[in-house]
Each structure stands twice: as C-alpha cells, then as structure tokens.
Amino acid sequence: MTVTAANPASETTPVAVGTPAPDFTLPDQDKKDFKLADYKGKKPVVLFFYPLDWSPTCTKENACFTQDLSRFSKYAEVAAVSIDSTWSHKAWQEKMGLKHRLLSDMHRKVTKAYGLLLPAANISQRATIIIDKAGNVAWVKVEADITKERDYHEVEAQLQNLS
C-alpha cells in the first residue's frame, strides 16, 4: 500500500477541493490492487469512505451503492474505502452480494492522507470524495453525523456536473 501527496492534509482535516488527490494503491476484497493513478486522464473517481463493514448504516449504504451502482459508474469509477481487512470485505461482499470494489485501508494511510480519520474511534469518517479526470479533488462531503447515510442524489448531481 502506497500513498503519495504533494501537500498532505492533516489526518483529521479533509483534503481541499482543487488540490491534487493523494495518490494511493490499496487492495480490494479480491486482493487486487486499486491504483488511483490508473484513472488519471481517463475517468473521474468517486471514493465512498465509510467507518466499518457489518455496521448498520454502512451495511444499508453499501447495499444502496450496489443497487444504484449504474447511477454513479456511468460518470466515474466507484470504490468504497474502509479500515477493514480484505478478508472482512470478502465475507461482507459475499454475504451482501455487493458489486462494487471494497478497498482495504487497514493501516489508515489513505484515510489519513485524505484527512478523514476519527482518532478517538480509529476509523474513517463517512465521506465522499470526487476526483476529476485530471486527478484533482473536485468535491468533498463529510457527513456531520457518522450514523446517517450520505445523500446519493447530491453525489449524482456532483458527478453530472463533471461531465
């Protein structure tokens, strides 16, 4: 797992819109590397950061991602990021029938690089980061209440604006 950033955010202060997105490589539930750099110049990327596999809100939210994946994937590459292991992701994906990639940030390096760490709980905030084709942060939304789902219509509207 590698992370590089020209101007890294504080681990608890989200990355700023307009700045280059911290590059990273993380394994997914199938232990296949997801490399952010692979999409630069090709297509936008939407990263759905969430606290934990198996938790009630995250379970409901990821079921919605899968059900509505085409709403997002027609505009961007979609990946969900949490601090859970690839093994947890695989079991959860199989149990839930999830179709999108679940990236494992067990060492919290990407979560910290994007400024989304909740230190007291040692998990990520619930946040959405949209990265444009040029590799810059185009939109950041951190949910004030970690127990509430994000607004999917808002995310889709932001992705439409990139087109």
SSE sequence, one letter per element: EEEEHHEHEHEEEEH
Q: What is the CATH H-level superfamily? A: Glutaredoxin
Strand content: 25-35%
Strand order of the largest sheet: 6-5-4-9-10
CATH topology-level name:
Glutaredoxin
Give a short overview:
With 163 residues, the protein is of the alpha+beta class. The chain has a single domain (13-154), classed as Glutaredoxin, CATH 3.40.30. It contains five helices and ten strands; from the N terminus they run ββββααβαβαββββα.
Description of the molecule:
The structure is a single chain. The chain has 163 residues and is an alpha+beta fold. It has a single domain, classed as Glutaredoxin (3-Layer(aba) Sandwich), CATH 3.40.30. 27% of the residues lie in helices and 25% in strands. It contains five helices and ten strands, in the order E-E-E-E-H-H-E-H-E-H-E-E-E-E-H. The protein has helices spanning 56-67, 69-73, 86-96, 109-113, 152-162; strands at 2-4, 23-27, 33-35, 45-49, 77-82, 101-104, 117-118, 123-124, 127-131, 137-142. The strands form three sheets. It has a five-stranded mixed sheet with strand order 6-5-4-9-10. A three-stranded antiparallel sheet has the order 1-2-3. A two-stranded antiparallel sheet has the order 7-8. A hairpin with a 5-residue loop joins strand 2 and strand 3. The longest helix has 12 residues, at 56-67. The chain is globular. The N and C termini lie far apart (31 Å).
